[in-house]
Design brief:
single chain, two-stranded antiparallel ribbon, 15 helices, mainly alpha, globular, 4 strands, about 260 residues
């Protein structure tokens, strides 16, 4: 494991966030806590690089009918988390929310596929998949950003998906659940299950503009981990000790030297 990645996962493992229990969905697996910390480091780096999706997700809380940050305003306020301004702080609070969404959606199992109890999830477009149980038809809410993220993650090398880290404390099946249908919708399902960080980053876009896509948000079943914001702040402080090394370790593309080799 890369030294920078190991430092972040060790920080996450020792933090109170790793010992938190969702009152509805049980204890959050240690691997997910580690993956959430790594994912935040990656997303924060994208924000600093002015990535369009990260900038969109960092906007101040908006219309509660569409935006989960607006819809969950009271819950954020109760934790002292202010989302009234554009910027990295609001993006960090969004990541707190997104990393709590898998509890009610998938019980933190990154490999799960279609919800067999939902009769409407029987096509490539509507079949839910991954940590956040998102379906391909959601892409229309913000097609420029969703399609770009989808196409990008198809090129990310497997070691940079951190699937082994997300699996710690919860395991994984020998064979992920099969996809429904064919075409891009089936590819999206597979990618959502095999790339946990993609599933989270994609959901971060959708909850800002189509929060009703998730019944768990509509029914307020998402419970915020009160320790996540502090963990992600500490990740920021750790990254600041050696920005270049951490940026290289957290990037979702291989270093130029590796590509050349």
């Amino acid at each position: 494991m890369d030294t920078a990645v190991a430092k972040i996962t060790a920080l996450a493992a020792a933090h109170p966030a790793a010992r938190w229990t969702d009152p509805r969905n049980g204890h959050m697996p240690i691997g997910f806590t580690k993956g959430a910390a790594l994912g935040w480091g990656r997303l924060a780096g994208k924000f600093r690089a002015k990535d369009p999706a990260a900038l969109f997700c960092a906007r101040a809380a908006g219309d509660p009918a569409r935006d989960a940050l607006g819809f969950y305003a009271k819950q954020f306020h109760a934790l002292g988390l202010d989302n009234s301004a554009d910027g990295l702080t609001t993006l960090r609070h969004l990541w707190v929310f997104v990393c709590c969404l898998p509890g009610p959606e998938s019980s933190w199992r990154w490999w799960v596929g279609v919800d067999t109890t939902n009769r409407g999830s029987d096509t490539a477009d509507s079949a839910e998949a991954g940590l956040c149980q998102t379906s391909w038809d959601s892409r229309a809410a913000k097609p420029d950003l969703t399609m770009a993220l989808f196409q990008h993650y198809l090129t990310v090398p497997e070691p940079l998906l951190w699937r082994d880290i997300f699996s710690e404390g919860i395991g994984a099946p020998d064979h992920p659940v099969h996809e429904i249908g064919s075409g891009d919708g089936a590819v999206f399902q597979a990618l959502s299950k095999l790339a946990p960080t993609f599933a989270l980053e994609y959901a971060a876009i959708i909850v800002r503009c189509l929060r009703r896509h998730y019944g768990t948000i509509r029914d307020r079943k998402v419970v915020l981990n009160p320790h996540f914001d502090d963990l992600f702040r500490q990740v920021d402080a750790l990254i600041a000790t050696d920005p270049a090394a951490f940026a290289a370790a957290l990037a979702d593309a291989p270093a130029a030297a590796e590509v050349a080799a």
